[in-house]
Amino acid sequence: MPYNSKVIKKVLSDFENKEKAAVAAAEKRKQELYKILPELGYIDQELSKTQFKLVRDILSSGGDALETAEKIEKTKLGNQELQRMRTEILKSNNYSEDYTKPQYECNVCKDTGYQGDDMCICLRKALSAEGLRYSGLGEMTRNQSFANFNLNYYSKEKDKNEMSAYDNMKIILERCKKFAAKYKTPEFEKAPNKNLFFFGGTGLGKTHLSSAIARELIEKGFDVVYDTAQKIAYAFEKERFSKISDYGEDVTERYLNCDLLIIDDLGTEYGGAMSVATIYNIINSRLVTNRNMIISTNLTLEQINLRYEDSIVSRIIGEFIVLKFAGSDIRYEKK
Ligand SMILES: [Zn+2]
Known about the structure:
By secondary structure, the protein is an alpha/beta fold.
């Protein structure tokens, strides 16, 4: 999967450091123990000669198979006895048996991140976690998933069209799940609209569903960036000043190049001509280069019409799946 290269680089370097630190800490514990328990140092010195002893056994037997086997057996028994003594010394001095061994965070891959050619599950988890951090999703929203999206907060009372907020959200939820599940598959690429547009009042779950999609795509290795329209517009306008992120790169480029850009709170950016033009340019250039977006806004379509040029509105209607979030603020229902 095409994890963002900066994310991979950061995580692999973390793993390398982790592995080195575990080995170094073990070595330090060992050296300190040798000072207190010199007999342990002697045993370890003998144990380290095992390989050499085995080679000697073979060479000194002059090709006699039986003699070789006997000598090897004797060396092995001696080795076992040394191991037993070592364990005994540690135990009688109240140290655990593996006190001098490296203590890895993951015993499966010994913090290398790999089992043979396959990524260890711990490396996958670390890549997802770093991808989430890198995406710009806030601490709280990082935990928002499809699994913890609760439809029961939405009213089942039907309106004049025989549709309840619950029914409506159920449809939206399915749409979002499908978007995440099929993302970048041939089926997804064939669909006429590959972007989502969420609109409706605050507290109706727009951010929750954006985050749930982001999480799922990041776990699959896609590069997702989340930010508010205000921050995105600001970054482009201030690009003469600092525009380098913590990862040492141009943030504006990432807004343009990531797989999925989530523009939250469209309409909260400063309403000057420059902001509007910036937002338009981002949406447009991402559409042209077939890069996907989720845009969410508290504005109604009429308000968007007033605020932005017709060209933006028509692009949204034409190239986004427009989903209207309805109901009452579920943040209050939760309380
Ligand atoms: Zn592992």
